[in-house]
Amino acid sequence: MAAFSKDINQGELSHHLARSLGFSTSPTATFHSPSSSNYGVSAASRTAASAAAKHLKPFATEDIKILLLENINQTGRDILAEQGYQVESLKTSLPEDELIEKIRDVHVIGIRSKTKLTARVLKEARNLIVIGCFCIGTNQVDLQYAADHGIAVFNSPFSNSRSVAELVIGEIIALARQLGDRSNEMHNGTWNKVSSKCWEIRGKTLGIIGYGHIGSQLSVLAEAMGMSVIYYDVVNLMAMGTARQVPTLEALLRGSDFVSLHVPELPETRNMIGQQQFEQMKHGSYLINASRGSVVDIPALIQAMRTGKIAGAALDVYPNEPAGNGDYFTDDLNPWCTELRSLKNVILTPHIGGSTEEAQRAIGIEVGQALVRYVNEGTTLGAVNLPEVNLRSLTMDQPNHARVIFIHQNIPGVLRKVNEILADHNVDKQMTDSRGDVAYLMADISDVDTATIKDLYERLESLSSRIMTRILY
User: Fold this and answer.
1) Which end of the chain has less neighbouring CB within 10 Å, N or C?
2) Are residues 333 and 448 in the same domain?
3) DSSP 343-406
């Protein structure tokens, strides 16, 4: 369906964070990635962009410390390391108590889907200013707590769409031809050449629940293979090709030979496919879930497959998933694992929908860029929990300028007090926006020195509405 605590401790002025000519602080500039020519720009254009933009640095902070968990792709690590940040990268997620110890002093944390950034964890993150989710989902982060404490959260809502869509196409064919069962039989030494209940997918109907980035790409691929496509979404969306939107979930289930789920994890999507929905599906139809594990009632699916109502299923996500690789897909994880594993024509994969080299590289670039823009410029474009605010870059022709970022409670009278503090200075440009109870203000002021910056910082910090103050210069 249609992706605090104090910002920084007082201390010495830090050195320039942006050391590499391969980076421009302009939010519209393209980053250079040595790992993929698809995202690179020429050396001449990179150098020109860097020369035009002023590299900003934070006032009153230690060197920026970054913690990356869950084996973030090298492209993302390179983008962050090239800025001169202190980057620590680990291959796994961490247990909550260990994570709390690690997160206490970091300014930036990058995670994937396994790490849980709960309120308990974030409460201990004294210096944290931004979270990068190197994946589509953000449900592993307490977004409201992060917003209330001025911590921006970024994700990558588009980069792995093609990888997931291709996996689903492969699973549709594999289920229709019972490839999983035939392969297992051959591995066990059994030759079992059959054609009963094996089908071409040409001429069959694919029903897509959730016609967003992945669902629409899947639609195009399925049509190219001769399938008819119908889709259901809570909003009206333009169809790709000859696909057709249907008005109700029941209409989709009754009309589809294959049903593929592409919805977010929300209260209204929890167990949205259960016993009643299986009864509405065609006899002998197939179900694919590469969205979220909470969307399908697995015991109901098991029962529907035992009766023959559902002829096959492919699951890439589960209500409870292990924190790391190993022999963990057992009844201790989910009480029905043994039953599910015993069924015929069921494809079980360990949440690998977006696990391709191309997708992980693209995610690394997209989220890495967003983190650098936020740290260096305060730009919140693409943030999922804060207002989206952006100002054009300061340039080398503006040497005595500073960028003031004031994240505050969205209550009456705050802007008047902030502007009284800024009134003695020349404000070149200013923008503010709010989202719920949190507001985000950016202002560029000219003709300042370090003493002025220190005074501004302390006066803004003293306001009772303050959530977080950052000054970049």
Assistant:
1) N
2) no
3) SSSEEE-SS-TT-SHHHHHHHHHHHHHHHHHHHHH---TTBSSS-----PPPBTT-TT-EEEEE
Residue range 366-390: mean pLDDT, rounded: 96
In a domain, 245, yes or no: yes
With respect to residue 396, please indicate whether it lies within any of the assigned structural domains: yes
Overall number of domains in the chain: 3
Same domain, 133 and 189: no
Do 138 and 199 lie in one domain? The reply is no
Of 348, 369, 399, the domain-final residue? 348
Identify the three-state secondary structure at position 286. strand
148 and 280 share one domain: no
Its domain, for residue 448, covers 388-472
Using pLDDT thresholds of 50, 70 and 90, give the confidence band for residue 137.
confident
Catalytic center residues: 292, 321, 351
144-154 tens-digit pLDDT: 999 999 999 99
187-191, 292-296, 324-328: least confident range: 324-328
Choose one of 122, 154, 186: the last residue of a domain: 154
Give the CATH number for residue 222: 3.40.50.720
- Eight-class DSSP state of 459: H
Q: 427 and 294, same structural domain?
A: no
Tokens 């501004």 belong to residue = 456
How many other CB atoms are there within 10 angstroms of residue 372's CB atom? 25
- Alpha carbon of residue 417 to chain centroid: 36
CA distances (Å), origin 63, targets 5, 84, 429, 470: 18, 9, 28, 14
> What are residue 53's phi and psi, to 5 degrees?
-95, 145
Burial class (CB in 10 A: 0-12, 13-18, 19+), 32: buried
Same domain as 204, residue 143: no
Instruction: Look up residue 93 and give its amino acid.
Output: S
Going by pLDDT thresholds of 50, 70 and 90, the confidence category of residue 364 is very high
Residue 89 lies in a domain: yes
Q: What is the band of 61 on the pLDDT scale with cuts at 50, 70, 90?
A: low
Mean pLDDT of 312-336: 94
Strand ranges for 192-295 from DSSP E: 205-209, 228-232, 244-245, 258-261, 285-289
Cβ(407)–Cβ(386) below 8 Å: yes
Instruction: Write out pLDDT tens, residues 79-116.
Output: 999 999 999 999 999 999 999 999 999 999 999 989 99
Query: 3-state DSSP call for residue 424?
Result: coil
Are residues 139 and 246 located together in one domain of the fold? no
Cα separation, 305 vs 284, whole angstroms: 9
Cα gap 128→149, rounded to integer Å: 9
| Cross-strand pairs, 229 | 206
Verify that 244 and 332 share a domain, yes or no: yes
- Confidence (pLDDT) at 52: 62
CB under 8 Å to 28, separation ≥6 — which residues?
Answer: none
